[in-house]
């Protein structure tokens, strides 16, 4: 590596292009801002007055939506604190440095849910599969479906390098917050691929009491960009240059600054909303990005394409459907009607607080009972006459300037009760209630079962305990299907005509036209009805018993291997034809030799028979010429008897040879 003009120069035939490298880095950073980096920025065409009107309206609507979410955001902060066992300073009640323990009830519930769900979503490196709609007589749909399955799983697990990690994060946060969001979009020509990233729910602002997440009138994503990030977007002609940004401020409205850090990020608001930009009294969907502190618009872009234009018979647009970037995943519907869902944070938060308070009271009572304390009269002179705390080593006696039994009258200890057994019972009751609510019981976490419990009874208890998770898994399945459909749609729009890629050193091809097939749908490989490995294996074993009854035995074998968690089952199912084993080949050769040996014996026996018959005929002819009459009849009878004996011998040898061949085959 050498330096040329202060810039790094690589030792390759092609010179290092610093500007192209910077362009790639900028493209990767700004790809997260929105889906269509190459689309037109309508802010360039509007007057300063119009931009000021739009910017002020965007910020005002953001503040209005933010107020509807204040209570939920406050609760979310406390739920995250419980899950992360956050200790907010020292406790000085009922005494200084009192116990401040946190019981991980919510954390255990979240970890258990994530551990059960993640292997269901990602199974043997696969996430998506195609569903064939209608008949497939010639097998063409099945071929295209297999091509799409291989390509989409390659995208999710290899090309979209952030997807698996973001999915893991989403499943970990979901049971705590009750809601997570993924943002799916095309990263632009410079990046050349799609992205599907996890967006923290607290970074999205919408009207909390909207009927649903997908029908709310506007969604605002809070973006944090450093000054360098902002300048890079300006230099890339993505954002307008709005001049000086001023000092950075934090996301939350109640925090005015970032401790004076000049490198802290600035807050931008990316608002997906409707706006009548062409003054035709119909509001079209746009994405408007505004610098929050100055309310200045930096970008406006259209948020629809031709697929979203609904036209009538006269080719007039009657409705425009916006593109959906965000996919919401909820844990449970919220009973207060809010669109952000409800999780273990809300369900277990109160129980976790009671458990924490009870544990701390028991610990404080134990501390009081162990350390004691009381009053000392003025006449007593312990600790050199200064009073205060006396600490004793084991077996130590301290001298005091006092005489007689009256020392007991001068020192009055306070009576502290031992930790309450009632509180201890209450603690166990609350912990058990929390575990039942979250299905985190010993049977479901691999703990000990009751003594002599039959296996079938234990399995029934596990299956019953997982009923709660079955309903939640269906919601996860629903949201994952929606996300996969977004990626499928992006492939239909942005994929090259033909793409060549490699999976496990095997070259594959995919054509964009495959994604235009309306008779194929995409869905997760996950089955919401199977929330445990036991359930999957039980179903697979039931299918194995049906082989050889006119069903698709190959598919049954595949599902059995997948239920066992065998990676790449196709390599086992579609094994190359290596011919019969060597042992069988050797036995076949031995059988062939024995058959040839038997044929030779038969041929030899036939020749001997012919020779005997010829000799017999000759003898009869000579005898007839010399001894006519009864002697001739005697020669004929002897000849017939000899022929009968020879035929019986031939049959016996033939039967013995056939038996030998049969034994060899077996």
Structural write-up:
- Helices cover 47% and strands 14% of the residues.
- A hairpin with a 5-residue loop joins strand 11 (309-311) and strand 12 (317-320).
- The model is unreliable at 1-16, 25-38, 441-448 and 661-666 (pLDDT under 50).
- Among the domains are: 2-69 and 160-340, no CATH class; 532-575, no CATH class; 583-665.
- It has 666 residues and is of the alpha+beta class.
- Helix 3 packs across helix 9, helix 9 (344-371) packs antiparallel against helix 11 and helix 15 runs antiparallel to helix 16 (553-563).
- Strands 6-7-8-9-10 form a five-stranded antiparallel β-sheet. A three-stranded antiparallel β-sheet has the order 5-4-13. Strands 1-2 form a two-stranded antiparallel ribbon.
- It is flat, with a radius of gyration of 43 Å.
Cα end-to-end separation: 72 Å
Please give the radius of gyration in angstroms.
43 Å
Q: Quote the beta fraction.
A: 5-15%
- Main beta sheet strand tally, sense and closure: 5 strands, antiparallel
Q: Which residues form runs of ≥5 with pLDDT under 50? A: 1-16, 25-38, 441-448, 661-666
The shape, in one word, is flat
Helix content: 40-55%
The helix-and-strand class reads: alpha+beta
Largest sheet, spatial ordering of strands: 6-7-8-9-10
> Which whole number gives the mean pLDDT?
79
Assembly status: single chain
Count the E strands.
18
Tally of contiguous helical segments: 19
